[in-house]
Amino acid sequence: MVITQPSGDPPKPALAIHNIQVVYGGAIEAVRDVSLEVRPGQIVALLGSNGAGKSTVLKAVSGVLDAEDGEIEKGSILLNGQAIEKALAPAIVRQGMVQVPEGRRLFATLTVEENLIAGAHLQSAASLARGREEVFALFPRLADMRGTVAGYLSGGEQQMVAIGRALMSRPRVLALDEPSLGLAPLIVREIFQSIQKLRDTTGLTILLVEQNANRALAIADYAYIMENGRVVLDGTSEQLRRNADVREFYLGLSSQPGRTSMKDVKHYKRRKRWLS
Q: Which residues touch 204 (CB under 8 Å, ≥6 apart)?
């Protein structure tokens, strides 16, 4: 039996973060009072410059902070309504969330197909076979490279394998950490088209951590912007794309004609109204 939400009642978040604080080494505060929601079937982007705290948030929800001596000191994280802020990474994967880490981190000495099989270690043989064909349909070039050792692939091909490996576990929430990092523009476009296709054709819920605001806002339903370890602005992609400060400081679209002067640069932080 299918249970539907009452008309007008929004679905409960697939992932909900409430006022988390993350500290490294017991002394360095990396994230402060961050809250965000990812609703089922949405792409939600977490944007910000390098060092803003985006990847720390992703590591917190994936249960891998302990590898870097990080700890969630306060706040809560709910995955499909279940608290996971104290859960270990394997348990979080079993509950339906998988992360594609920054830098891909493939098994470099294994083939493309062997990397995909490694991602399906919790699945049945039938589910593995079905998932593998779905990955090859999403990234057709990987089908011809299934026997190629992953370490010999280009950066873009490795990113496709990394996403495919995560999909093999049949996640309910897919977390992507900087999927455009170090890739050529044409490959970035292909990767982002595939991410959008996943949302549109399968209804997969996606949390996208990115510095490339142009690309992220083009496919996201909702977005949050982080600065200095906290969320400073959020809204639908359309709302943020219309925001004058976001257009200038994240999309490179100045509202003022002509060249930007050094005086304008010195007023950078002051003109970020959301930080006041």
A: 41, 171, 172, 174, 198
Q: What is the DSSP annotation of 141-189?
A: HHHHTTTSBGGGS-HHHHHHHHHHHHHTT--SEEEEE-TTTT--HHHHH
Residue 25, both tokens: 């080494």
- Phi/psi for 224 (5° steps) reads -125, 140
CA-CA-CA-CA torsion for 52, 191, 92, 18, nearest 10 degrees? 40
Cβ count within 10 A of residue 159: 28
**b/e map of 184-198 (b: 16 or more CB within 10 Å)?**
eeebbebbbebbeeb
Under DSSP, is residue 14 helix (H, G, I), strand (E, B) or coil?
Answer: coil
| Start-end of H helices in the chain | 54-62, 89-94, 112-119, 125-138, 140-144, 155-167, 185-202, 213-219, 237-242, 244-249, 262-266
Strand duo 173-177 + 205-210: pairing: parallel
pLDDT tens for residues 187-207?
A: 999 999 999 999 999 999 999
Dihedral angle sign, alpha carbons of residues 141, 144, 149, 152: negative
3-state secondary structure of 129: helix
**pLDDT at residue 243 greater than cutoff 50:** yes
Between the alpha carbon of residue 196 and those of residues 43, 85, 204, 258, the distances in Å are 8, 28, 10, 35
Residue 242 burial class via C-beta count within 10 angstroms: exposed 0-12, middle 13-18, buried 19 and up: exposed
Lowest-confidence segment of 51-60, 100-109, 128-137, 215-224 by average pLDDT: 100-109
pLDDT band at residue 60 using 50, 70 and 90 as cut-offs = very high
Provide the phi-psi class of 105: left if phi over 0, else alpha when psi is between -120 and 50, else beta: left
